[in-house]
Amino acid sequence: MSFSHVSVMLDECIEGLDIKPDGIYIDGTCGGAGHSCEIAKRLTNGGLLLGIDRDPDAIAAASERLAPYNAKVLKGNFSDMKALADAEGVSEADGILLDLGVSSHQLDTAERGFSYHSDAPLDMRMSQSGVSARDIVNNSSYEELSRILWEYGEEKFSRKIADTIIKKREIKPIETTSELADIVRESIPARFRREKNPCKKTFQAIRIAVNCELDELDKALDDGFDMLKPGGRFCIITFHSLEDRIVKQRFASFCTGCTCPPDFPQCVCGKKPRGRLVNRKPIEASEEELAVNNRSRSAKLRIIEKL
Predict the structure, then answer these.
(1) Fewest CB within a 10 Å sphere: which of 85, 106, 281, 299?
(2) Spatial contact of 194 and 182, defined as CB atoms under 8 Å apart
(3) 3-state SS of 26-44?
(4) Regions of the chain short of the pLDDT cut 50
(5) What's the rounded Cα separation, in Å, for the pair 136 and 145?
């Protein structure tokens, strides 16, 4: 099976990483190795790339594409990058990249169950193992479903959608993406159903819950920054406000110095900034990129350098 994915803001990421030929780099979301290949081909002086992904399809594709380079592809979650790298004898990195988007391969392969545009079994598992979207939709309580849709999808009709899910599954289990999409449309008032993607928030929320995405990101931010060498850079591409907010706030905390009250005559906390923002505002896709890859429209790239 071919693994297709268009790398978002590829040039901006490569520039942001400020790659050293002898450096050690980690692509925590290797996918189809688009970013990884561009990093690896610049490591001409003993450098090393570690690519990490939890999708078996991505592992197979990336392993083949990175074979000509000094690179290793590891199976696992990007939140476990410290342990995975340590097992390879790597304790520090000159740069780390995370692209938090769902890959084109995952979206376009109907049987993976990520998209509401195709009729397929409810799945959404990036690792192709563990709890699936079907499990969450059919087994979660009303309260839990409402919470997932509200917190992870910012869906204002979360309670109505959760209520309809409960009623429908009492008749028969909800098995497919089309069934879930129909439930969402049925639950949303007609004037809101005319929005471009009335199912988008619900599918996003359930996907995040299935893959524990925000918890994984929270751990990866701390571990990744700790792994960076002084002068090393951490580049993260987000695709929705929840992720971007977490990254923005955590990067800001890394850059915060003294936290003593302003009326203290001198600093007693001793806290110093650990990083600096390479760009004050997030980088967004260019008009040229948007013209050829509409999925980059919501992408934001933030970059921090360790002091």
Answers:
(1) 281
(2) no
(3) EECCCCCCHHHHHHHCCCC
(4) 1
(5) 8
* Phi-psi label, residue 270: left if phi above 0, alpha if psi -120 to 50, beta otherwise: left
- How many other CB atoms sit within 10 Å of the CB of residue 195? 11
Q: How far is CA 162 from CA 142, 159, 166, 168, 276, in A?
A: 6, 5, 6, 10, 43
pLDDT for res 104: 73
- Least Cα distance to 65 among 106, 98, 43, 36 occurs for 36
Question: Is 266:176 a contact under the CB 8 Å cutoff?
Answer: no
Strand partners, 96: 26, 234
* pTM summary value: 0.93
Angle of the 158-171 helix axis to the 142-153 helix axis, nearest 10: 140
pLDDT in tens, 66-94: 999 999 999 999 999 999 999 999 999 99
Q: What are phi and psi of 228, to 5 degrees?
A: -65, 140
User: If phi over 0 gives left and psi between -120 and 50 gives alpha, with beta otherwise, what is residue 113?
Assistant: left
Tell me which residue of 198, 147, 195, 202 sits closest to 174, measured CA to CA: 202
Amino acid residing at 181: A
b/e per residue, 141-171, with b = 16+ CB within 10 A? eeeebbbbbbebbebebbbbbbebbeebbee
* Residues 132/210, Cβ–Cβ less than 8 Å: yes
Residue whose tokens read 């000509």: 68
Rounded CA-CA distance 35/54 in Å is 16
